[in-house]
Amino acid sequence: MAIFNPFHALMPRPEQVAAVAAVPYDVVNSEEAAALAEGNPLSFLRVSRPEIELPAGTDLYSDAVYAKARENFKRLIAAAPLENDPEANLYVYSLKMGGRTQTGVAGAASAADYDADIIKKHEKTRRDKEDDRARHVMELRNHTGPVFLTHRSVPEIDAVIREIKQEKPYFSFVAADGIEHKLWKAGVERSRKLSALYADKVPFFYIADGHHRAASASRAAAKCRAANPNHTGKEDYNFFLAVAFPADELKILAYNRAVHDLNGMNSAQFTERLKEKFTIEPAVSPEPAKGGTFCMYLDGKWSLLTPKFDIAGLGVIERLDVSILQDNVLGPLLGIDDPRTSKRIDFIGGIRGTKELERLVREGKAVVAFSMYPTTVPQLMDIADAGQIMPPKSTWFEPKLRDGLVTHAF
Q1: Residue 392 predicted with pLDDT over 90
Q2: Is 347 exposed, middle or buried (0-12, 13-18, 19+ CB in 10 A)?
Q3: Which pTM does this prediction carry?
Q4: Which 8-state DSSP code applies to residue 65?
Q5: Is the pLDDT of residue 289 over 90?
Q6: CB 235 within 8 A of CB 410
Q7: How large is the C-alpha radius of gyration of the chain?
Q8: Is the per-residue pLDDT at 288 higher than 90?
Q9: DSSP class per residue in 227-286
Q10: Whether the Cβ atoms of residue 345 and residue 333 lie closer than 8 Å to each other
Q11: Distance of alpha carbon 177 from its chain centroid, rounded?
Q12: Which of 227, 326, 354, 382 is deepest in the core (most CB within 10 A)?
């Protein structure tokens, strides 16, 4: 069963949390991070994306970048300040975006559980990204960005969370993007109760987002373990920062596709090839109303694509919408055989909406765009349970967890 422990979080004071909190390091590039942190010396982006304080063009994996991260973290601890919670807590964390709220629990997940697939994966990781985060973690001796976990709902856990949410939060703020963040300390007794419930009622966690953070935490734990002749398994380095949400609290947004060219075809030729496997009709909406269908933006208009073939008989991976599009359109017709490496396709998070797809085509940055129906959380879990890997860019979770609210030192 899953281990999820209370820990002594390093965290800002309530009056400074809005200034410290930052979007995850991997959803912005260097230029975007610099713009978000401009004028704010307390922004956690100065720790997670330290290159923004170095000369333009600095190698992101150079010694100077990690040294700057270490320097900035030390400075932030003193300036914010960031303070250690004197009590080992679990932390209830809610995010409200529009009219929807999702609530999870921040705690210390087990690197051993990750290694043993008690924390299940659905995505391949890249070695260079693992190397980067593993070094970042070791330089700071701190897990600064949470891994986003989910699990099947447990009524007893939900009840404790509801009780805690009746109380005044430790902090509450609305970020610049309009998302409201609240965090409560569970308290020592309720933290122990929640931890015991996870151990008793949650057989598996599933990584929703943060595969590279989790992989780097495992590597950091292994390195620390090898260097400690008196290793017991209880040291802080054996655990990493995570926020666990019940699956029914989450919503996955679409991950749309925009393709730069038609692989040597004109629009009419491409459309005729599409008709071999899809019916094509004018779209009522630029977003598909159900899984297994797609909306296509081509020549200034939206069309609805519906497969002529049976989807129900396909395998758990093959019947994903992203797989159907890849296996029947992007690969065989448009020549995008490996979407992980192809420079001819862009992936657009659903948070940007279909207007962004129209803009890319209108400005000539793409020729055709596809609006997708979102992958579901049950599909994610089914694939992880089967020990399989989802196609790239299958899920886009919103809202994003903020860095800097709580961090896990080791």
Answers
A1: no
A2: middle
A3: 0.90
A4: H
A5: yes
A6: yes
A7: 22
A8: yes
A9: H-TT--S-SGGGEEEEEEEEGGG--EEPEEEEES--TT--HHHHHHHHTTTEEEEE-SSS
A10: no
A11: 17
A12: 326
